[in-house]
Amino acid sequence: MNAPTRPSVSTGRPVPAELPADVPGFTGRAYEIDALDRLTGAADPATVMIAVLSGTAGVGKTALATRWAHRVRDRFPDGQLYIDLRGYDPEQPVTPDAALARFLRSLGLPGEQMPADVEERAALYRSLLDRRKVLILLDNAASVDQVRPLLPAAASSVVLVTSRDNLPGLVVRHGARRLDLDVLRTEDALALLARLAGDSVTGDPEAAEELAAHCARLPLALRIAAELVHRRAPATLASVVGELADHRGRLGLLSTGDPHSDIAVVFSWSYRDLPSRVARTFRLLGHHPGTEFDSHAVAALTGGTEAQAREHLDRLTASHLVQRTGDRYGMHDLLRAYARDLALRSGEAGLPRAVLDFYLRAAATAMDLLFPAESGRRPRVPDADAPMPALDEGTALAWLDAERANLVATAVHAVAHGPEWYAVQLAQVLLRYLESGGHYPDAVMLHEHALRAAERLPDRRSAAQLRINLGVLHVQQARYAEAGAELQRAVDLALEVGDTLVRVRALGNLGHLYQWQGRYAESARFLGEVVAVARHSGDRAGEARGLGNLGQVRLRQGRHPEAARDLRAAVAICQDIGDAIGEAYALLFLGHVESSSGRSAEAAQLYERALLVFSGTTELAGRAYALDGLGLVDVLRGDHEQAGTRLGEALSLFRRIGERAGEARVGNSLGEAAAATGRAADARTHHLAALRIAGEIGYRYEQTRAEEGLARLSAAGRYEMPA
According to the model, what pLDDT value does residue 719 have? Predict the structure, then answer.
């Protein structure tokens, strides 16, 4: 084929100005506009600059590209070329030869000189653009093959491509730079709604935020929703939001009848090009109850291998039908609703049982790695057929943290759709992780749903266990009235079903609750009964817990020899049965006994041993209590700088997990540390804060400690006690 010659075009050199009209009401995207400015800068003066703007359907790629192009058009005095390649349009996508013919005519080539061969057209196109500064906007490209012939050779021109695909070939082969467009920031989404829907949005900001969330902050969906608000007038914005709250009807409400602006239809343009197995994976993802997932969960969902799941997720990510963050994936609510609707239409109804089996089995494995000594107290769970994550002691906690929201979501789903026993078992499996890590809201939600399921089944023994768990959670959040009610109901249920072990556990936690409330005689009576029954039944773990709690009560009563005896017995049993955390708590309170007896060196050794164990576990509260003990020893030794560091870290940990009783304790410790260095004002502030918290939660011991600290300041003439 002969090399093309420069055509005989008009000497006036046409200056095309083909950009579509700027988008009315365009809002936000300041960061992305700046990013496009940077991406289209001349990285290499010898090569053409190509930028790819990719993102999911309806995210506003064309609007942003058009706004940016109008903003920079003066940089391109030789014109702006634009074409909608219709890569995802229901109609036939624009072929490269048709696109080249259009661009050549725009550049002044007479129709009779149009080459028939696509390669000749591409070569002629590059010749006409030589030494010209032209902006070329290629909108809605489906593939690299559709774009490649439309790339100029002249470094003076800039190409901006929009696509729902990442178009990695353009990046690898042609050095394109890519900007992935996310949904609007919340403030920009609200600003767009206010601009489009006016006073109804600005007058009810809470409803406006809900509306933006229901629209997944997608510009297209927000524009449709604003029109829906106008159509529903004079109905309130809140009523429109209420209609959209039902995900089952949301896509229908966001329908316009126009295939180019109907949210479900626009999504379908991306979905229809998926291979059949990838399309099935996308549909099934609509049934996943969580907001994000990993490849193992998707393998369980689809019944395939983990490698197949990753392959499908990579394909969906490239099409912007799922979003990847690290090794996890997610979908916004509208895409999830669309996927679920497709699944139901395809007869794929409901969440496969294999997904629940996967999460329960993986959670049980993680718990056995983190809390091996307590494995006998957790229910036996079924094996799962799905590929399992390779968990070990170093990764088990990270897996639970990453999947916590999904685990709670699957339990809620199971209570609503079955099987209900799943929620019961999952709550019993996860309690130790949730309460030791301070994940109280998730723990309470999970247990309340599980209790509802146990009562429906009915499973009174499990209901008693779950009420005990809720009582423990309430104690740790200083909700003592709720804790007492749950624990007493658990005692009654245990008597009804004749379960001694459950009754012992309920009584033990009631004794622990009474200790917090300063009811030491009642607490000692309950805990003594717990130790006796556990010892008689051979429940060594229950005996150790009872002895540990009884030792704490003896300490509060000032009966130090008896406290030390009980706590040492608890340490011995925990060492024998391999309960490291139980041992660490017993050591911690032995440290308190030694400290209260004036033996600070012995106390420090015990606190250090406890801290060493706690630091390798999820037991953040235990770590904080050990740091508090060490901080007080530092005060006695005169090492005030180290005391401040340790007590400050303890306070941060307690606040992080929301344990107010611990916060009150450290507040008093900080008060004592400040008083020891003559900082009376600081000491007063800390003790008053501890007094307020202890009074609010009914923690009698720390309340008394705060009052005594303030009294010492008053006696020294540094503080006037309140009336």
Answer: 54
For the sheet with 135-141, list strands across it. Answer: 80-84, 135-141, 158-163, 49-54, 177-180
Closest CA to 163 of 52, 262, 271, 275: 52
- Whether the full predicted model's pTM is greater than 0.85, yes or no, is no
Angstrom distance (rounded) from CA 148 to CA 121: 13
Cα gap 436→431, rounded to integer Å: 8
Distance CA 632, CA 648 (A): 12
**Residues 294-326 as b or e (16 or more Cβ within 10 Å = b):** bbbbbbbbbebebebbbbbbbbbebbbbbbeee
Nearest to 32 by CA among 74, 75, 68, 72: 68
Specify the pLDDT at position 248: 65
Residues in the chain predicted with pLDDT less than 70, given as ranges, are 1-12, 42-46, 90-91, 247-248, 256-262, 717-723
Question: Could you give the CA distance from residue 602 to residue 607 in angstroms, rounded to a whole number?
Answer: 9
Say what angle helices 520-537 and 500-516 make with each other, to 10 degrees. 160
CA atoms within 13 A on the CB side of 422: 24
Buried-exposed string 620-635: b where 16+ CB fall within 10 A, e elsewhere: bbbbbbbbbbbbbbbb
**In contact, 64 and 34? CB cutoff 8 Å:** no
**pLDDT single digits (tens) 265-299:** 778 878 888 999 999 999 999 999 998 999 999 99
Closest CA to 161 of 286, 301, 62: 62
717 contacts: CB under 8 Å, gap ≥ 6: none
The 328-330 sheet, strands edge to edge = 292-293, 328-330, 323-325
Tell me how far apart the alpha carbons of residues 391 and 406 are, in angstroms, rounded to a whole number.
Answer: 17
pLDDT at 420: 95
- 351: how many CB neighbours lie within 10 A of its CB? 18
DSSP state of 177: E
What integer pLDDT is reported at residue 258 of this predicted model?
A: 62
In the chain, the amino acid numbered 337 is: A
The residue whose two tokens read 């009315």 is: 24
Contact 40, 135 (CB under 8 A): no
Q: How far apart are the first and last CA of the chain?
A: 103
User: Within its chain, how far is the Cα of 256 from the centroid?
Assistant: 33
Question: Quick one: pLDDT at residue 158?
Answer: 94
- pLDDT at position 34: 93
pLDDT of residue 35: 92
> Distance between CA atoms of 63 and 444, rounded to whole angstroms?
45
What is the spatial distance between Cα 437 and Cα 617, in angstroms, rounded to a whole number? 9
Give me the pLDDT at residue 10, please: 44
| Residue 49 DSSP SS3 | strand
| DSSP conformation class of 84 | E
Paired strand residues for 51:
160, 177
At residue 366, the pLDDT reads 96
Cα(666)–Cα(646) distance, integer angstroms: 10
Closest by CA to 49, choosing from 189, 198, 158, is 158
Strands 328-330 and 323-325, sheet pairing: antiparallel
Mind listing the pLDDT tens digit for each residue in 53-73? 998 888 889 999 999 999 999
Asked if residue 674 lies in contact with residue 689, where contact means CB atoms within 8 angstroms, the answer is no
The structure tokens listed for 427 are 């709550």
According to DSSP, residue 378 is labeled S
Q: Kindly tell me the number of DSSP H helices and DSSP E strands found in the chain.
A: 34, 8
**Cβ neighbours of 721 (radius 10 Å):** 10
